[in-house]
Structure formats: C-alpha cells, structure tokens
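Narrative of activities, Objective 1.

The group set out to show that a structural description can be obtained from nothing but a protein's sequence at a throughput compatible with the screening campaign. Below is one input-output pair from the validation batch, recorded exactly as produced.
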Amino acid sequence: MNIIFESLLAKDITAYIDYKRALGRKYDNEEKALWLFDRFLIEQPIISATEIQPVLIESFLNSRPRSQPKSYNHLLGVIRCFFDWLIKQEQLMHSPVKTFPKRVTSQRRPFLFEPVQVDLVLKVTNQLPDNSKALYRHSTYTLIFSLMYGLGLRVGETVKLQYRDINRERQFLEIKKSKFGKTRLVPFGPQMGMRIDEYLSERNERHGYWQPQTPIFSFTHTKDGQPKPVRIETVSQTFHKLMLKLNFTIPPGVRAPHLHCLRHSFAVETLLRWYRNDMDPSQRLFHLSTFMGHVDPISTAWYLTITDALFKEANHRFESFVNEQYKEGLL
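Output recorded for this entry:
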C-alpha cells in the first residue's frame, strides 16, 4: 500500500515517519495510524496546526472506536508521540493531546516454560508424524522451537532464515531486517550448533546441496519449484496443538502457553542465570536487548516478568547487600 498524506500536516507527518525509519524502525503500523489521522484532518474546517485542539483529538479517537484498550492506547500513543516531536521541532508550543490512556485491567502474565517442560515439548515435537504436505515435520519443528527458546528468536525471524544466514564455522546466525528493521548477528553454542548441523545434513542427504537463498524451514514450493518458507501461522497452529496435547498446568492469572512464550522464557531464564552466577542484571540488560533485537533495554525489560524464582534470587541479593552494609557499619 502506497500511503500518501494530504492534510495540512502532510509534510510534517512524512518528515516524522522518515525520522523514525532513519532510526531503524519499520513504523508500518504507526504510518497507517497517522494516515487515519491525516484523513480525519482533511475533513475538518481548519487551516493551521494551531487550530488542532484537545477536543479535535478526542473527536478523532471517538471516530476510530477500539474495543480493546491496547489498540486504543496504541492509536493514542502514536498521535501523542507525533505532536511531541512537532514541539521538539519548534512547530508547536503545546501538544493538543490531553487524553489519558485506557486502563488495562484484564492483562494476564505470560506462561513461562521451565527447562524440564521445554525438554518435554521438544521430545513430543520430535515424534510428530509426516503428512502428504509436510515431510520431516519432527526435525523441522524441533529446530524451530529450539532456536526460539535457546536463542530467543522471534518466530518470524526463525522461519525467514536462509542457508546463507547460518555461519557454521564461526557459529552465528545473521538475522536480517527483523521487527524494527534491524540486522544482527546471533551467536550459538556447540549444542545448538550440533542440532543445526544434524538438521542440515539430514536435508542435504535427501535433497542435494543447499543453495544460499534456500529457506531453512520449508514444506511447500512455488509454481516454478522453489522452496517456500513455512508460514508463521502454520508454526503457531502446530505449537497450539502440542500444548493441548501436553496440557500443562496453568497458574492463576497466567495466560495459556503460546508460541511467543518460548522467547519470553529465554529472557527470564537468562536473567535468572545472571542472578545465580552473581552477575549484575542491570549492567547486562543492554547486552540482552541487543541479542534479542530490541530498540532499547526498555523493550527488553517487558519480558522480565517477576517469577517466584526471580523474586527469591533478587531477595537473596538484597539480603547479602544489607548484611555487608551492616558489617561495615553503614547501616
């Protein structure tokens, strides 16, 4: 979709989107939200940005009903950030956005897999039978889930991997233009390297040598015979069926396990490991943020859900700190 802005703020909106994308953001959904605002402004009897008042912003938000608070808050947030940027550019003196976000009351914590549960998931996955449209389902899905949990990859990053993205000699994956338009290198250890080698060797024996652009995970082909990467929806549906079969106990206030929980569990397990190895998580959060392909550590912090294990480790760290301060006469 080629989006064209035509309102009195068209040039400013375009400049703002260019600014965001220059920072490595895709900004596609936000662009669509700003386009809705642009359409709305065209119909208003105003001739300058200073005429945009809080009541007009309210009218726009009411014209785009959102049943979910998250969706409403996203639209509001995009508009708010745009006007904040205009102020920084000295285009406006004050922001007309005075509306408060809607309170999210039904949000539940994500399901976090324990290592023993992940082992069980991989064991059951490795028993998946083939079907007429999908050969080697067991090895394909086992490696997909292993990469998501072991390296914290997004499912979209995983299914887009091509043979040339795997550097087996130096042991890293090249994740190209991911969620925020960023490309990064993700190193992997010997155990993950062994799983990748076994998978590639199995496919190589049955289908011949890999081509650089060949997708790593593929069940179907295009009309001209080229392999097509497996769809995200297909992976998600398969994972959902496995979760129904395994029927894990879900704690109160926790969502049912879904595919993204593998990546979430990787982040929390990493933090827990730092605590247990006497590392300072606050000093290493930036490394985790970079590893996971986030724009900044604030995005990563969302994953670090407080669990009983994390709370116990953090409490132990605090008690040790207090005891040291007491011995030195500082308390």
